[in-house]
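Lab manual, section 2.4: Encoding a predicted structure.

Procedure: take the sequence of the chain (377 residues), apply the prediction step described in section 2.3, and record the output as structure tokens. A sample record is shown.
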Amino acid sequence: MNKRFTCKIIVLVLLTATPLFADLQYNVNNTNYTINQNDTTYNYDRLRLRNDYTNGSYYATFIGDVVNYYGGSYINSQDFTFVKTQKSDTAYETQSGFHDYGEGAVTTKVYRLYGGYQDEKNNVVAGLQNIPMGVGKFWNPTNIFNPQNIYALEPDEVFGVMALSYTRSLGTLSSINVVASQKEDSSFKYALRYKNFIKFADFAFDVVKSDDTTMLGYELQGNVGSTGIELQSEGAYIDSSLYADENRTEKQRFYQITLGADYGFVNGITLTAEALYSSKKFDYSQISLNYNSEVLTNLTDSNLYAGASVSYDFNIFLSGSATYIGSLNGSNSRFFSPKVTYTLNDYNSFTLGAMLYDSSGAQKYPDTYYFNYTLSF
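Recorded output:
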């Protein structure tokens, strides 16, 4: 039985079995983007079905997507060819191939599929899931499972990992978490995370180990007295085998540290600032060679970045935000992303935004303008 067929069977069993259960919750969400990029306009639509089942201490979640791209120029572009190569680092395929029709292409995928058990002291989760690590708002150097991408249209939309995760509560404010996940090549990646509250802040120590990579990291998050300012920092020491050229790998050892702060003003304005330092930077050719590396998001082309974001609720219907990120050496790149959101009601929202780039490096990114309509029910 091949891997793709096995994954389809798992999904089919879940979908057909859930009507037999009690305590089910369904949610349907449709996210539609009209995007202009490189003087090309196309449409991206994602229909998402979520099914949550709970029975006492037991729970299960299925999230499945139907994703459609429409626009002949984009479908035949190099950018879309790159999109089609992206997939989860799992031993079982979680996404179907793309079906082309006219000026469009459609695919289906399993976004999350997991079940677990939780009581006052224990939480066990098995299946295709998100492994949360790190406290950074823009960058997560400690997370080499599924880190966010601040430069993406949807930074939190990340591939899941096939894993078994166990969290044990050691006290009111302390816990230990162990993870074992299976990668595409059927090898395993392991993680250990110990978290505790120390005087003024939450502190966590992280260890991640795979055949190619060892990561030692920390997370720190706490309030500065009664000022209302929240500080967060995380750091990672990474030892990973990376391609030096097409036929040879070599060990790369470097560390990365983030430092950030949040503050909410009484008038509704929220400010976030964060900086990332990397002891080593990588050029465009090195990053391209290591596109499939599990530490790809740690391969920066600058030693130092700084970013800031501001958000404001004008009223209960209208909100706005803007994010700016700049590299202070290396590629001297700048990224600016403003957006305005109008929430009509609990089911409908509209967003107008842009992602603007200015870079002197080898890789040039196109400016992107978009309109998003989201329907939930």
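Check your result against the sample. The chain has two domains: 1-116, 130-377.
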